[in-house]
UniProtKB/TrEMBL annotation:
One of its GO terms (molecular function) is oxidoreductase activity, acting on paired donors, with incorporation or reduction of molecular oxygen. This is Luciferase-like domain-containing protein. Keywords: Oxidoreductase. Pfam families: Bac_luciferase (PF00296). It comes from Mycobacterium heckeshornense.
């Protein structure tokens, strides 16, 4: 390792990974990410203490160069005028450094909170409404995304509409991103080969839509546990993997993308701690409380789809994701401060 990792590929990072009770921790994490030369700070929105609108406003005032992305929010959780207003206010505060990452989530979640599920038609239309509002246009709409007789933002900063990034796993979601979005955020725990296949699907859709080659930015999310003690490593990697694979339907989709045996999911879900859990396990348990459940996952499912161990070993894994065609890597699971060993390279002045 003779140069900085960030010299070879743009690196982003998640702030406030997992469940947290004190969102003020994001301030120091954002400053650390910028100091390390990371390109984008991602904020995983969670109702309660991780509201993207509040966090992006605060972080924009203590940083100056790093981009700030929601990863992810959802179209139906905010009225389109409210999301556009949030986005353009954040653009004004940050000097145009905002990215809006959105996703579909699972239908059961929306049924539980009384919000409609999204269809491909409503997603495409909502994205168009959002962009038009951010450009100052008047929107009169009645269609799959809802009914909006007269929408307009009267006062706008001299900033462009933020880029829209779609979070996707399967081929339909990747095609949607390639056709209609500015970028795609790939899910954690994809192997480098799964990322390669995902990139190819995005590029095919990009070409079919007549868009310039490479115009859709591919962000590959990689869970990283670099030089962490064993007990923290299993919480960062294994327990986090549990929270994805135990969700019915979602776990099957993730396993299928990697080409893994989906029958293994039944064994995981039979663990006494998971029996009776509806939705994601991390809405009920902390990652520390899921450490013992992680032993039910096949070792390959974490070892081949995360960066674990020494700094040099982690860098080698990250370079495989770069070689798979990712335009930017998004490090997840560890805080920016925990990732400092990755940037201790000769000639790297961070």
């Amino acid at each position: 390792m003779t140069d900085c990792l960030t010299d070879r590929i743009p690196i982003g990072v998640y702030a406030l990974p997992g469940r947290i009770s004190d969102p003020r921790l994001a301030i120091g994490q954002a400053q650390a990410a910028q100091r390390l030369g990371m390109s984008t700070l991602w904020l995983s929105e969670r109702w309660g203490t991780k509201d993207f609108g509040v966090l992006v406003g605060a972080i924009s005032q203590v940083t100056s160069t790093i981009q700030i992305a929601s990863g992810i929010t959802h179209f139906q959780s905010r009225h389109p005028a409210m999301l556009a207003s949030l986005a353009m206010t954040a653009q004004a505060l940050s000097g145009g450094r905002v990215i809006i990452g959105v996703g579909r989530s699972v239908d059961a979640m929306w049924a539980a909170v009384g919000l409609p599920r999204m269809t491909n038609a409503s997603i495409v239309d909502y994205a168009d409404i959002f962009r038009r509002l951010c450009r100052g246009e008047r929107v009169c709409y009645d269609g799959p995304a809802g009914t909006y007789p007269a929408l307009r933002l009267n006062d706008l900063p001299d900033q462009p509409a933020p880029r829209l990034v779609w979070a996707a796993i399967g081929p339909k979601g990747l095609a949607l991103a390639g056709s209609h979005f500015d970028g795609v955020l790939l899910h954690p725990f994809l192997t480098p080969e799964a990322v390669r296949r995902s990139v190819e699907l995005v590029r095919v859709a990009e070409r079919a839509a007549g868009r310039p080659a490479g115009s859709v930015r591919v962000y590959a999310t990689v869970v990283v546990a670099c030089e962490l003690p064993p007990e923290k490593e299993v919480a960062v990697v294994g327990a986090r993997a549990v929270t994805y694979y135990q969700v019915p339907g979602f776990g099957e989709q993730l396993a299928a993308v990697n080409g893994w045996d989906r029958e293994q999911l039944a064994l995981l879900r039979s663990h006494p701690r998971l029996v009776g859990v509806k939705g994601s396990a991390d809405s009920v348990f902390t990652l520390k409380e899921l450490v013992d459940v992680a032993s039910m996952l096949p070792a390959e499912w974490t070892a081949s789809a995360a960066a674990i161990g020494s700094a040099s070993a982690c860098v080698e894994v990250l370079e495989r994701y770069r070689d798979a065609g990712a335009d930017e890597l998004v490090l997840h699971g560890s805080t920016p401060e925990q990732l400092e060993p990755l940037f201790r390279a000769p000639g790297c002045r961070r």
